[in-house]
Each structure stands twice: as C-alpha cells, then as structure tokens.
Amino acid sequence: MTVRVVLEQAEIRAGHPEVLSGAELLDTAVRWVHIADTEHVGALLEGGELVLSTGQTFRGSFAATARFLGDLQAAGAAGAVIELVDAAGEPAPHAIDVLRAAARGRSLPVVLLTGSIRFVRVTQVAHQMLVGEQLARVERARRVHEVFTQLSLESASEQQIVDRTAELLTTPVVLEDVAHRVLAFQAGAEDPAVLLENWVERARRVGYREETGRRADAEEWLQTPVGVRGRRWGRLVVPVALPGDAEDTDAFQVLERAGQALTIARMAGRDEQDLLHQAQTGLLHELRQPHALTEQEARTRAAALGMEAAAYYLPVVVQLDRLPGEDPTSLQLRERALLADLAYVVRRARRSMLAAGMHSGALGVLLAVPARQLEDPVLERIFEDLAGSRSGDTTWSVGVGRSRESLLEAAGVLDEASQVAGIAGTLEIRRRLYYRFSDVRLRGLLALLGADPRVTAFAEAELAPLLDGQDAAALDLLELYLQHGGNKSALARTGYLSRPALYARLARLQERLGVSLEDAESRAALHVAVLWYRLREVGRSASP
After folding, report:
1. Do 427 and 323 sit in the same domain of this protein?
2. Separation between Cα atoms, residue 236 and residue 238, nearest integer Å
3. Contact indicator for 109, 3 with CB cutoff of 8 Å
4. Please, where are the H alpha helices in 170-243?
5. CB 109 within 8 A of CB 23
6. pLDDT given for residue 273 in this prediction
7. What is the domain range of residue 221?
8. CB of 84 within 8 A of CB of 59?
9. Domain check: are 12 and 122 in the same one?
10. Measured between alpha carbons, how far is 6 from 488 in angstroms, rounded to an integer?
C-alpha cells in the first residue's frame, strides 16, 4: 500500500485533499497509519508511517508546524495528512497559510484536507488493507513452500520443477548449466524458438549472481544459482520481464525455492551430465516424431543444448554387444559409461553432437560435420579415440547412415544407422571401426528385406527341417560349412570335429535338408537363409 492508494479512499477524497509537497513520492510504501496531534510525534515513529493529524497543538505557529513536519521527515515517515478546519467544519485560513509555508520545498509528502473526515474510518480501511496484504504474502509463501516441498518428496524431475516454477510465475523459465546449455525449459505462452534463439550467446552476456536477484546490466534477467555454494552447476532464469502485476519479491521467493528444489534433486542422485543427457534424449525423441518441430525450432533447441550449427548432420548408432549372462542393469551401466567416453572424445575432436539411448544397449547420435568429405576423417578420429580410451574394449558396433543438411531428416535416418549397427554386430570379424550399408553387403540387403513376408517364407522353407526341431547344433554346423565355402577339408582343419565324424554329420545334415550341399545354388540359398535367421535373432535381442 502506498500514500497514493490511501489518498484514493473515499473518506480522504471527501476532505478535498491537496498535495502541498512531495508529490513525486506519493508511491512511497505505507507500513502503518498513525493518528497524532502532538508536534513531538517523531520519537513515536519507526519509519514508513502515514500520519493523520488535525494540527490542534501546532497549527497556529509556523515554527511548531515546521518542527512537526521536520520530525516526521527525520523519522522516515511515509507522509502526513493534515485536516485544517474550524469548529464549524469550515476551512481554517490562517492554519492553512501556515501549513503551506511550512511544507514548501519539503520532500515529505504533505497533504492538506480542507473538509472534515473520520480519521478512524481511514485507519480502519488502511489497516485492513495492510493486514490483508501481509496475510496474502504469508499465504503465498506457505503455498510456494508446500509446492516445492511436495516436488522434492516426490523426487520430481528437473523438467517438472521447471514446469511448476513457470506456472507459479506465469512466465517462461529456463534451467541451464554452467556452459549455458539448456537442460530444461518451459516457454509458457512464448514461442520456444524465439525464447531459445541464440541462447548461449545471450546467456553469456548475463553474468552470474551468487544469490537470487537481477544484475544491473545486460538483459536484466531474474536468476538464482543452482547447486551448493562453491559447486554451482547451473542457474535458473526468467529471461523475460515479469507480468505487469507481478512483484519481484514474490518472484524472488518462487525462483529461490525452485533453485533449492533443483539442488536437492541433484544431491539425491542426478548430476549435470544426467540432466544434459535427459534433455538431449527428450529433444532427439521429438526430432524423430513427424511434424513435432520445424527445422528452425529443431536447430534452435539443438543450439541451446550446445550443438553447433553445421553444413551436414551425420546419423550414427553405437550398439553394445550383449555379453553372455549379462543382466539389464549391467548393460545399462555399460551404456552410460560408453556415452560418457563418447562425449569426451567428441569434445576432444572439437565436434558437437546430440546423443540419446535409442533402445537398451544402443546410443543414437547426430554428429555435426562441416563437409561431406570430412565425414570419414571425423568418424575415424572419434572411434579410434573411443577404442583407445576404453583400453581396446570394442564390444560394440557402429552403424552410420547417410548425412543430411536437415537436422530433422538426419534424425529420421537413425533407424537406417541402427539397422547397420545391428548387422555389423553379427559379423564374426569386424575389420572396420564403423559400417555403412555399402559395407555390410548381403547382410544389409537382408536387413532391408527382413520384414518382407516373402523373404521370411523363403528362409523358413530352406531351414524348415532344422527349425522345426530347434536343432541349434545342426544350424551351427551348416553355418560353419557355408562360411568355408563348402570346403570340407578346410572345415575339418579348424578342429571342429574329426574328419570321419564331420563327414558323417554333414551327410546326415544333407539328408535332413533334402538338398545337395555340393550344389553351389543350394549353398547360396542356404547361406541367405542362415544369414536371415541370424539377423532375425539380433533384431529380437535388440528390441526395447
């Protein structure tokens, strides 16, 4: 409540108020309204009071009136409202002249009333407003406390905390890390593309504060640090002006409690890279949804996550091999470790990427490259470093799709890269760091045609005698025989079986299949069928 608000009361207006001084300070906040007729009232005040008086003890003396106003000003009063009427309720001319003279040139708001009013009514209404405002503040503080306490108890995600903060403030809110990459945001009524446009550069110009508030320069963003003091890992910002009726004090409180909730969430087990990965996963998922984003929105969101704009975007999938007896938790831990190593080598190669889990044990990556002719040098450096950083552990295969100028189109090619990675995972000997469809040849063709019911019918018909009995040993023997080009002597030299036992088993296998294993066309047909069967097994094991 301000002096101006009090003067707008009907009771005050009935006294024909006239501002004699301090008109520029009518928006001063009023802490309390006090009635006093003594000229020695200064000692009774604590600051911020609006004093109502009839001036009975000092109205006839210029010195006494000036002393009264001087004491109010020295005590930090918000202003003075002085009623100067005679016993008949008419204006008191001499007292009015004295007050005008004493008020002249003062910065204290001094208001003259020339009509009788009921001071009790003024104080009653004013105090109701003040108490009501304070109760409303207490209620808002209680509500904010309950909201964020509940979010913490429910282990809410960072995105949920940001969403709730934006809802309470009715403004966009952005959570960024110390590198100004956007970890979570809620645009509200704003256009996300406009909100995040050139985010990293804009955010760099807004310096950090160690407490909730605004800086005196740049874009005047309201912000609060996130993380414990000395180990800040980001900040929460309101990158737009608050709504017209919003107050900084209330917004500070909401933003500060949100920052505390985010810090607690991190301390409860999440770290900065988890948040970045979570944000990238969400964006990559949206990029793969038809018509979810425009190209410009996609590029803006990717840039806000630290991905540099590039001439081409290369879709890559890194798929971990399944280890014997490996449980899902162990596979997930290996996937997280691989993601951390991949992020490190990509940064070291001075490239940028978006990366996210596509399904269990597989990472989808969109890699920014400056030119098509640089794709292979970039890939070779990254995956040579990746193999080296993991001490030669290359229990993973890499599939690469065709690069695209469009980020959205590149995201759509991730399925192609995933197929290639799955096919490469079936190779017994991997002579390359990464594979494209042109590298996997017949396996690639079968992967493309694998869902065709005609291919399925052909392969199942070729292998029916073995599949009906689920004879895995016979399938393994057939596969080894075909891999050696039908050369029994070469197969025998591998030590698989003694020659007599091997020849006997091959004869039984030929009899079960009902075809001649010496016939080149039969071997080719069987080889295609076995490859199809193995690729189907890989596809089933890689399903989410």
Report:
1. yes
2. 7
3. yes
4. 192-195, 199-204
5. yes
6. 66
7. 155-275
8. yes
9. yes
10. 105
CB-CB contact of 113 with 12 (8 Å):
yes
Cα separation, 432 vs 424, in Å, equals 9
Q: For 104-123, how does the pLDDT look when each residue is reduced to its tens digit (9 = 90+)?
A: 888 899 988 888 888 888 88
Question: What are the tokens at 372?
Answer: 């098509």
pLDDT tens sequence across 465-521: 888 767 788 888 888 888 888 888 787 777 667 788 888 888 888 888 888 888 888
CB of 122 closer than 8 Å to CB of 88: no
Cα angle 411, 414, 418 (rounded to 5 degrees) comes to 170
Q: Is position 295 within any domain?
A: no
Same domain, 429 and 472: no
Is residue 161 within 8 Å of residue 259, measured between CB atoms? no
The residues facing 374 across adjacent strands are: none
What DSSP character marks residue 256?
Answer: H
Confidence of residue 333 (pLDDT cuts 50, 70, 90): confident
Q: What is the pLDDT of residues 516-541, one digit of tens each?
A: 888 888 888 888 888 878 777 765 55
Torsion angle, alpha carbons of 464, 469, 470, 471, to 10: -90
Q: Which residue has the tokens 């071997």?
A: 523
Could you tell me the CATH number of the domain that includes residue 74? 3.40.1390
DSSP string of 1-57, one letter each residue: -BHHHHHTSHHHHTT--EEEE-GGGTT-B-SEEEE--SS--GGG--SSEEEEE--TT
Give the DSSP letter of residue 322: P
* 212 falls within a domain: yes
- Three-state SS for 437-499 is HHHHHHHHHHHHHCCCHHHHHHHHHHHHHHHCCCCHHHHHHHHHHHHCCCCHHHHHHCCCCCH
| Whether the Cβ atoms of residue 273 and residue 181 lie closer than 8 Å to each other | no
User: Are 436 and 314 part of one and the same domain?
Assistant: yes
Residues 18 and 79 in one domain: yes
What are the φ/ψ torsions at residue 497 (nearest 5 degrees)? Answer: -150, 165
Tally of domains in the chain: 4
Together in a domain, 483 and 421: no
The reply to whether 351 and 369 lie within a common domain is yes
User: What is the DSSP track for 91-103?
Assistant: B-HHHHHHHHHHH
Structure tokens at 117: 């009013």
**Tokens, residue 233:** 């890992």
In a domain, 148, yes or no: no
Output the six-digit token pair for 496.
């698989």
Does residue 394 form part of some domain?
A: yes
User: Residue 200 CB: number of other CB atoms within 10 A?
Assistant: 17
